[in-house]
Give the backbone structure.
Amino acid sequence: MRSLVITGGTDGMGRALALTYLGRGDEVVIVGRDGEKGAAVLEAAAAMGAADRAHFVRADLSLVSENRRVIDEVRRVLSTVDALILCARHYRSTRAVTAEGFEDNFALFYLSRFVLGYGLVDLLDAAERPVILNVSGPGSGTSDVAWDDLQCERDYRGMDALMRGGPLNDLLGLGFVQNEASAKVRYVLLHPGTVSTSFSGEYDEQTQLVIDHLKDTARPIEEALAPMLEVLDHPPAAGLSAVVLGEALDVRGPAFDADAARRLYGETTVLLSRLASAAPGVSMSRLRRLLDRPVFATVATVHPDGGPHQSVVWVTRDGDDVLFVVAVGSRKERNLRRSPDVSVLVSPPEEPYTYAAIRGTATLSDEGATELRDALAIKYTGKAYADHNPEAVGRTRDTAITTVRVSPTRVVGRL
């Protein structure tokens, strides 16, 4: 049985996907803003004998706080997520700003997908063949991104505001892979064409006439599902893929600009930093989830003169203990042999100003160090250490390594 999370799951393609997988015996979390539509999906699930496998979460995904609540709700229901399907969007003829200060299209069609993708990455990583399916408009080109007006403050036009989400989501998918958020997750950007869905939105009179025409001429939902089911049932080998009307799109071309992806990621984290994402103190459950992700840690040890030494390492955990590997004879190893006092700092890169500093005592052991290094390499790169970095293996063939186990004595921060 697979587990899926579908946003925009009470209407159109999202609803059709939910009922398809519930009919196959899978478990589905359906996210939508309309309680009545959510109840209708649950009623349909019950009619097919899937009431215990269908879950509805009512949420306004234009709010970052609601996305974070959805993440918590998903965690209460699922221990793994095989597929995260991002369908939610809502047209507005008139510009609207959320209570958190973001333009509504930007918040729903882009920020929500950013927060959910990064926020559920550990549950995705726990699945065998995880995939994020971002139903957007790939390939429209990222060179025309309005960097000085990402939220359409000037000369707002509803269709233009909606169309801007396509290149932003292209950069989101590219950034997800560039940032190595997960070695396992496959990120797929998909454009199903114009499909006869509910066309969720608030339209002026002229736009409504266009929408009515589209409803009559658009592709039926059943036809649009085929490429989506193909991606979900057979995730591609590449970290990032794009599909337009069932045809693969080259994600190495100029429409996918690596520098622009890095820029958008940075600007997004700055925008999210406006929101107070954590109170002082550390939730141990959140810390465990963070340590289970391929997040880089900064290790601080003490030099012989009392000064600090810092370096970045791969980490994992055993219960609440933090584990990493060091080379015998390295500065870290010598410092720890002399003084076992150590601090390990971790911070989720997509949630600015949140962090946990794990202070504790280190113990060193040669047992299992090679196996741990391979496990860490697979966690962070998807490959065994020798396959990931054969040159380093050649240079350090005669260098012994040891496992460092940090047993926490105090954990501080905002997480």
